[in-house]
Amino acid sequence: MIHRKRTAALVTGLAIPGAVVGTAHAAPQATATTTYSGDPGKATPTTPSSSSTAGTPDKSKISKKATHAVREGDTLWDIAVQQLGSGEEWQRLYGANADKVADPDLIFPGQSLTVDSAAPKATPPQKDKPTTPAHSSASKKDRARASAGTLDDWIEQAREELRKNGDLVPSAAAIKARVMTESGGNPRAINLTDSNATAGTPSKGLIQVIDPTFQAYRLKHLPNDPYDPVANLVAGCRYANATYGSFEKIAYLDGGY
Length: 257
Known about the structure:
By secondary structure, the chain is mainly alpha-helical. The protein has eight helices and four strands. Helix 4 (151-165) packs across helix 8 (229-244).
């Protein structure tokens, strides 16, 4: 995969309810006391000041919790973005649901996941290859393109785009071999457990490219979406051509590229 990284989780559609903060109680009024300094005939009353933080709850200890039912196309990364504000928080989702989710790359429609902003981050065991979810596209754009063809169709569309742009055009067999190693043919695949994911840029899509690579090598007239099958294949092929001299050199490697 291209600059592999894994990260994300999957909860969709639920807003995290705001935390309830307890009411602060007014501190009892301090009684003035008299102290003497210098001339004993002059007394200066002083009143000790009350702490400005009295009765204020420790916000760092307040957690936001919700329960989310997984829907088709969800990933831990996407859920973390929606519910916790950052895809890199997917490990909190993983930690909060360790009893339900054995593999962070595999969550299934119908699962009920706990979203807890204070849950400890859990690190999954390292794997040589990403395991792809059994479900497929979630976005309307993905469904529209997916409904227009199969993996073989996407590969031919990508080869035509490369040809029109003047790029080296790999064989269909070479592209398919790389795709099956990287994603198993799932355009919604995301790697959440490798070094790229740890760095915050998980590899995505059919040929597993990270976002910076996708942006650098995509063709601008294609969808700006790393999960779009044709756009993903084109970016991956162009990256491999530029980095290794030709896509064919990495097409049949056992590991990532």
